[in-house]
């Protein structure tokens, strides 16, 4: 079976390969009448482009074209197709090393799953480049959410061993935007950058953690039992390459807590029911409770490193070694920040549409 | 929108409420010809029943009846419906406290989502009792998986602050079964039991972590981009009440690692491609790589505690306090062990069926 | 893959077999707060029961039990499970004739598809008895639709060679209810009854055509391109056993018409846009236009006839003959009338929910 | 909700508008390793292009570009995106007549459904031009089916009042290809052409009926209860603009038959179970029985006619008249022949993949 699409009421389908002709997305289910231009999508694509600190040196301009779904500057109710062209591809390293899977990459599993016919150039559709498609779809979702006052804001809270301190909800996006690596804690941002430069110099890489907070969600979003907010958002987020964990609110550390510490007591604030703490991460019984939804996403270190590693030659079934070429981000979590925002926005738009909280017109 | 079902090729739909007439499941997509009796399902239900250590004192016999889908002792290709009756229900506490939501329960969000018409008795379908339906569906999945030599084994690796030591794959299920709380590390099991009894005596509760390992999966299962193994399994697992985090392989701690440490180098072992380590948790690019799939599931502390807590009276919109009655497990992670096994088995059966790795006959 | 469920936003899943323990349905997606009792479902089941004219003599009381999804007389937002028991089953004829497929029945294809493990007793889930499950789901849909003033009314317009004359929209349901075979044209009803008795006496059967009109639909329902009103309703209706054709509005005869005759010109009536004719059957571009939706459903003659027919013995792969036993309706289209109404109601409820025209609460 | 995609295991999503930049399709679920070039898709597109007899005079070259999903001439397991550009568009007539819906077109319903934001130029995505996307997806399906010896062949059997005589299965495609209107009965083809020219001269249009036969299907395809072969194929076919009816095998005329005439008796032929007649149209219980699947699709007359018609001015809510401009086929059923083949092929590919009858690699 296939699954290049996600969403029931608001659906994003991505296509394209790292070294193919293009990468793009089709978005279905966006209500008609939403103002949407290429600029709205370009802005988000620019945020994930290499060129920022700590990124690969692949030079793509990534100019988006909106091919369908918009008439007179507004969505027309039909599928929105957006596309960028691949320009700066060089498949020579991959041609030379075909048949020797890079450790902790999808090369081996793709080879088996697709019977030897997977696209071997730059990881094909397993490449991080496919996340450009996710960002295009996310840009449409963001435009839609903004009409309802809903906003997903992602920021980097850990890179390698460096952890950011607590940052408040207010001004979070502005603070994150000031950092070249989307870390809203300025001091931590500098230390992270240093750590990243260190591993880069070393031909190595590090992992990181991205947090995403969703503001403005009404109470009652999410579809128990099997399409809870956590199920829908984790499903979306685990589609991003290199994600190894997802937690909500108090997350894994809550396992060590007592109920009397962890429970979020209710209160009334300005005529509205709120909770006094938010260990629940804005979700109770799989349904939003009106507090900010908070999730954290763990990224493994970029698997592409400059050091020699042991692998196998699949055609001869012999052990061998490989030194990964190409241009890679030393900390994939950095460029993943806008991607997390994008897929979370798509998931939230889907849940809001499913809950009839966004009018289909 | 609704979502009481999960799965594309192998689908489980659950129904019932905590204090209603029954709880049950419908399973679609199970191939015909599989030997299946009520005993296969009863065995799994017995594993999640209260009565084991550290559980609530609600006394349900939970005798399952298979109402459809089986002819002459074998599945007939049609939907398998199985049901248990609710017998030991007492809604009096809930009647008295209707309108005052229990902290960190679904009462408030369900009230809003269902416009005041949600089942207020014992949490309705948000109750942990709905997991009996998941276990019924999981029992069918397990029967199916066993034919292909695939097995999901869950065990408790943390309860409150007590962590289990490393346990080998071999004999894991037997070791877990010896512990009344499914902890395969005997020493840790005893300490956990003590910790659980302590919080129970205290009218409090603790969280815990359940690990699940899946053995016997072929290479090539999982459907990128958006139905990766991680997406499908996290989606399923986050449907279990009280889950706050899911991680695969190295998980969250991988964020602090370097690529050179974290990467799983390939080797050849007995003519088969293997990895020398398994930080990937058996998954590369969202696809199984032939190593055991490993995931860990974080449970929050049982929100029902005996202590007085602050809440609100929804009808008067006033702050008030509540002391939760009823009978509850002090560590919900314990009884969740067979539930994790069940939903993981359903997810795995679905992926195997989708990948054509189980014949539809 | 399996498909015992239908619907995206309002979903019905059926289970059970002709000679198994029960037949039932699970309905998901019904908004909370709808008044619903067993009586609402019983009323519809009684309409499809044998015992009316022209039906089989199998005597089932078909007393429905609502097992979940209703609290204090109203839907609670959860899955509604309803069930009837099989009581009057006699599998002896099927035991004797196992392995010799009845012509134009599903025996042969089910045997192959399910590898010899299909339920051979009374056709298993291919039996017309499964339509009782559809009627249960339809009863819930009808209750929901009635709140929005939407009503599907089916009636018999042809039985064998006898065709009913035109009948007006007004009072259609009352006129159909007066006829023991749901034919709103009294004269035709009598002739049809006679024709049915004739073929029954002859050990033979005849086909028929059921028309369904849907009143009260707002403009704008239906999801182009691939979930048009016609696609959704034909999908649902072709699930009823013995259906061989579905047409909307002018249907097949429109193929012979000119555009100038067939087109429905627009007019304004009481401030509302209407069409002067309704050859479109209430649908333009796959979307409702505010006129009544009209479809006709062709049923083949009941394949179970008393006459000797040629068949094959599957175990010996030899030609043989068979004389079908059991109790059967000579004109399956008659009892299909409430079934058409039911599945159409489910389809309409699904489209209305998807279009946000029924509040999910 | 949206639905620009169709299929569960083999999925086609279409995008584009009549007067927008392009029309295209994304195909998911095609196994890797299938030889596929732009030529395979171009061949099918050329079959539906205007320029053949009886077509509109809009001059599009419709040169397809395959943008993703193919590596080294073979499918790579990823989404296949194919696109054609719109070149010969002239929206002036539509600009002048905006707000006055064309009778029996989707203008009015699209206007209401999309809140006035639907693409008013040439019908937007309701235009017949969207069927080019269906043909692109169908071309991929056909390539896939051909590997399994499965073939869908459509031909015109009625245009206006002219009906084709019986044509044998053998050589059906060749005979149809000889006719400029895909009518395999040469004499009828000439009469149909004359009838079409007559209505064209008259500024009028006629309807028609397309038959499709599917050869080579194994026994056991189709998913009861709710995804029967009839349900899946009718769902697909009713997505084609202007379709008003679908029937299988004996179809509507079977309603007037007796069971003893209509039943298909079984026989053994060359060690294989066959039926002596094929009134069932190759389907029993919603499952293929190994005989050719036969369906007929009724098309209404092209709604665009040159004659003056009554309509309404939606902005003023006044009655008015309209004379439809633009370039249109006088008999839309003619160009629909390859479109029926395409969507049927997509449906069949989906069912075969779901039934595991095509290896996913």
Structure in words:
Four copies of one chain form a homotetramer. Chain A has 361 residues and is α+β, with helices and mostly antiparallel strands. Chain A has helices spanning 38-48, 92-97, 107-113, 131-147, 172-178, 186-201, 229-237, 259-262, 332-354, and strands spanning 5-6, 11-16, 22-28, 65-68, 70-71, 74-75, 80-85, 151-159, 162-163, 208-215, 243-248, 266-269, 272-275, 283-284, 287-288, 293-299, 308-313, 318-323. Chain A has a single domain, classed as Chorismate synthase, AroC fold. Helices cover 28% and strands 24% of the residues of chain A. In chain A, the strands form six sheets. A five-stranded antiparallel sheet of chain A has the order 1-2-3-7-4, covered by helices on one side. The two termini of chain A are 33 Å apart. Chains in contact: A-B, A-C, A-D, B-C, B-D, C-D. β11 (243-248) of chain A pairs antiparallel with β11 of chain B, so a sheet runs across the interface.
Question: Brief overview, please?
Answer:
The structure is a homotetramer of 361-residue chains. Chain A contains 9 helices and 18 strands. With 361 residues, chain A is α+β, with helices and mostly antiparallel strands.
């Amino acid at each position: 079976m296939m699954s290049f699409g996600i969403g029931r009421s608001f659906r994003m389908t991505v296509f394209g390969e790292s070294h193919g002709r293009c990468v793009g997305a089709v978005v279905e289910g966006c209500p008609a009448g939403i103002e949407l231009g290429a600029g709205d999508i370009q802005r988000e694509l620019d945020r994930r482009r290499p060129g920022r600190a700590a990124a690969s040196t692949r030079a793509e301009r990534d100019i988006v074209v909106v091919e369908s779904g918009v008439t007179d500057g507004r969505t027309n109710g039909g599928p929105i197709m957006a596309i960028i062209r691949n320009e700066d591809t060089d498949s020579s390293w991959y041609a030379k090393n075909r048949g020797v899977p890079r450790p902790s990459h999808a090369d081996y599993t793709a080879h088996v799953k697709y019977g030897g016919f997977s696209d071997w150039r730059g990881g094909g559709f397993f490449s991080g480049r496919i996340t450009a498609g996710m960002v295009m779809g996310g840009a449409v979702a963001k435009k839609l959410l903004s009409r309802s006052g809903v906003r997903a804001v992602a920021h980097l809270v850990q890179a390698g061993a460096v952890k950011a301190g607590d940052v408040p909800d207010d001004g979070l996006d502005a603070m994150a935007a000031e950092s070249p690596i989307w870390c809203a804690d300025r001091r931590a941002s500098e230390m992270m950058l240093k750590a990243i430069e260190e591993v880069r110099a070393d031909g190595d890489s590090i992992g990181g953690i991205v947090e995403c907070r969703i503001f403005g969600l009404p109470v009652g979003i999410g579809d128990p039992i099997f399409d809870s907010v956590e199920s829908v958002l984790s499903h979306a987020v685990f589609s991003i390459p290199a994600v190894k964990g997802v937690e909500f609110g108090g997350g894994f550390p809550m396992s060590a807590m007592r109920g009397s510490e962890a429970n979020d007591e209710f209160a009334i604030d300005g005529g509205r029911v709120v909770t006094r703490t938010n260990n629940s991460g804005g979700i109770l019984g799989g349904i939003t409770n009106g507090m900010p939804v908070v999730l954290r996403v763990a990224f493994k270190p970029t698997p592409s490193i400059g050091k020699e590693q042991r692998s196998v030659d699949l055609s001869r079934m012999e052990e061998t070694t490989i030194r990964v070429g190409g241009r890679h981000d030393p900390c994939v979590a950095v460029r993943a920040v806008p991607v997390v925002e994008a897929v979370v926005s798509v998931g939230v738009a889907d849940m809001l549409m499913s809950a009839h909280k966004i009018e289909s017109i």
